[in-house]
Amino acid sequence: MSKRLPPLNPLRAFEATARLGSLTKAASELNVTHGAISHQIRALEHSLKVRLFERVGQRLNLTPQGAELLPAVSNAFDGIAAATARMTRPTSSGSLSISCVPALLSLWLIPRLRNFTARFPDIKLRLVASNDPQDVRLPNVDICVHYGDANWSDCWFKKWSDLELFPVVSPTLINNRPIRTVRDLADHVVLHGDDGREWNTWLAAADALDLQRGQQHMFSDARLSTEAAVHGHGVALGDSVTASGLLAKGQLVTPFSLSVPAVHSFYVACRNEVRSAPVAQVFIDWLFAERDEAAGRTEAAVAGQISIRRKRTPKAANATEEQKEKVARSAK
User: On the CB side of 112, how many CA atoms lie within 13 Å of its CA?
Assistant: First the structure.
């Protein structure tokens, strides 16, 4: 006995509308008109003899029947997409578009790109410097390697690395203008890779939020502030992942034995249908394997410059509300 299934297009319209919560957004994603989406949903409701959506003010909510149908439809489309990806993108050949944090891309991934190319010569990579959390939704981006708080839904993600933050400076600059104590930072240009919050976090741990600030430069991301430090333009905050290669080469040194944990971590994320594609799995597996292989060298590079350790004093670990407010005010 054959199974009767609703027509495909109305199911696609229903799934997109339920997932996006909007007829207009569903129409844009499926490249059809708003009226076409509305018509297809009405046709599906007529076929099933139930209502799938109801309006509550400006909101479009699923009815109990719609909520029951959605998981089955979503899983079916995910399965079709995954099977298609497996057939059209063989394990060891194809192309991938990677969105990666600028600093991680320039200072960590690109130096290791030769390893990937040698192992997988038939996989073509498109590398984009970005940390936009919306990239994971873009059809022209396959995998994201981003810094964040894992605030993604309806996609696959996995923590790739935590990281520590600490000041870094070029050997030439520190030789010409020594940095012996935190107070010596007042005589140096401070380089920011964000809005100033990370430096304030480190200064709070060093009990130096009251430090008299000298000249400061602001950059759009940590890659640029780190590169500015390499060129001797000031003192930047490096991290235990992206700065490790520069420390190992002696292009940067760490003047203090104090690090603080970064607020967020590096994550690998992608859409569920991409995750099941063999060519994507190849890159993700390589990324984690390369991280594990580099971990020992990273620790050695950092320890070779100076012993990095977190400060675990009551003032640093359990800041009072007054201290927290001071950090927040300093970041503005």
Answer: 16
